[in-house]
Amino acid sequence: MANLEHKQAVLKLIFEGELTGDGKMKTKSKSYRNVQGAATADQLETVALTISGFSNSVYIGTEKIETSNLS
Questions:
Q1: Which conformational region is residue 34 in: left (phi greater than 0), alpha (psi within -120 to 50 degrees), or beta?
Q2: Which residues have C-beta within 8 Å of that of residue 26, sequence separation ≥ 6?
Q3: What's the predicted TM-score (pTM) here?
Q4: What mean pLDDT is reported for the chain?
Q5: How is 29-70 classified by DSSP, letter by letter?
């Protein structure tokens, strides 16, 4: 039977960037490593909103990127 073993999780906050020459909005992001794999969505949202409050850029959203080993 195969098992998934948590290896790493990254929290990626996404912010509005500048406009391109053709008027499209660029985004910029900031990643935070060493996120616990067992962190709940509510906990991650609280952290993301707190951290985004320190930025001058408009906060768009958050992604959790997980890496696991399959054995």
A1: left
A2: 17, 18, 19, 20
A3: 0.83
A4: 93
A5: EEEE----TT--HHHHHHHHHHHHTT-SSPEEEEEEEEEEEE
